[in-house]
Amino acid sequence: MILLFITLLLTCQNPQAGPEVRIITDAGPVQAALLGWQDGHPLVDSKVAVDSWWSVDFPNASGEVEGWTLALSDGAWLPGQPVIGAEKPTWMMAGLPGVKALEIDTLWLEAFGRERLPQVEEDRDQLWARTSSGGLDRLRGYLLEWTPQGITFETSVKELFVEWEQVDGLALLPESVPQQKQAVWIQLVNGGVLSARILHAEEKVLHLELPWGTPWDLPFASVRRIRQRSGVEEWALQNWKVQEMPQAEALDWTPRVGKSVEGRPLRLHENQVFAQGIGVQARTVLTKTASTAGTLLLNVGVDQEVEHFRSPQAVVFQVLLDGEILITSAPKHVGEEVQTVLVRIPRAGEIQLIASPSGVLPFGGHADWCDIVWKPEK
């Protein structure tokens, strides 16, 4: 069995050629200058394409942006605000100077809100509207039209028009959307994350195609991390059996897919938001059967939602195969660097992901298993 905690193995000889990035490959991590992008692969140093890559980490720090947030049907999460005056759904990104607004296909639109995201329901859309008295009205029905002046919405009683200054949030019926070929997840320095296809890169700019076909340019300086989606299985979206979890009368500690254990975006060190993963409360044991040998990529840490708790609990992360420990992390505290773990699973068997409290403190212990990407051996 092979355990691999991520360390730096190779230092670039010519860092002036492009931003120095850390690339996680099947052979381990590589530090190199990123020169461009070609056919779904990063180009490094002398225009050498890295074939078997998992993720690319940029040296840009993330920051927290307050205000509106947008959620897309594929798991994307984008800080910003709706563009008033636009003819169709358009989103201005916060904290990314010089980046143009996103025009969004309504099929991918899931929810947006000023201070919180409305809860998505299974049978109808929801519109939250501010009242003249300072309160909020929750309207249930169906979105009819996004207009330059506001939103046209149909309830069971009548058709309403709500001006943008009154709109507080919108949640649409969930839609199943296709995944692009050669898609990647891109974590942004403003705490956002989105899926797109990288067409090519030049002059430190990524030229992207968004999932609905719209072109969009993104400077290297706006990127925190790129994670592979093609040629791998995104196990965070599949069913995991909960073998063990904490029990409490007043609190529900059921693991949440794509959210922290309290239902917020998965958010680790320096406001890094992950579109995929499972949020749990330590101690929790998740199990899944692998039908073959392969390699598992995970990013682990304590969710930032406990950073204001009094003495929040540290967490130890373990990966086991048929009860045998493959990897054990040091105790992870809130605010510490995200730990990337690449684990080879040598044979078919039952994989266990165990998040355990380190100590007996009663506060915190909100553990995030992020990404959870599987590549079976061929």
Summarize this, please?
This protein is mainly beta and 378 residues long.
Topology diagram in text:
Blueprint: E1 2-5, E2 20-25, E3 28-38, E4 41-44, E5 48-49, E6 53-57, E7 68-72, E8 77-82, E9 90-93, E10 102-103, E11 109-113, E12 125-130, E13 136-146, E14 150-155, E15 159-163, E16 167-171, E17 183-188, E18 193-202, E19 205-209, E20 215-219, E21 223-228, E22 233-234, E23 241-244, E24 256-257, E25 266-268, E26 272-274, E27 277-281, E28 284-290, E29 294-302, E30 314-321, E31 324-328, E32 339-345, E33 349-358, E34 366-376
Which keywords apply here?
34 strands, 0% helix, SH3 type barrels, ten-stranded antiparallel sheet, 378 residues, Jelly Rolls, mainly beta, disordered N terminus
What does this structure look like?
With about 375 residues, the protein is mainly β. It has 3 domains: about 1-60 and about 180-230, SH3 type barrels, CATH 2.30.30; about 70-170, no CATH class; about 235-375, Sandwich (Jelly Rolls). Helix content is about 0%, strand content about 50%. The chain contains no helices and 34 strands. It has strands at about 1-5, 20-25, 30-40, 40-45, 50, 55, 70, 75-80, 90-95, 100-105, 110-115, 125-130, 135-145, 150-155, 160-165, 165-170, 185-190, 195-200, 205-210, 215-220, 225-230, 235, 240-245, 255, 265-270, 270-275, 275-280, 285-290, 295-300, 315-320, 325-330, 340-345, 350-360, 365-375. The protein has a 10-stranded antiparallel β-sheet with strand order 5-4-3-2-6-21-17-18-19-20, with no helix packed on it. A 10-stranded antiparallel β-sheet has the order 10-9-8-7-11-16-12-13-14-15, with no helix packed on it. The chain is globular. About 40% of the residues are buried. Residues about 1-15 have low confidence and may be disordered.
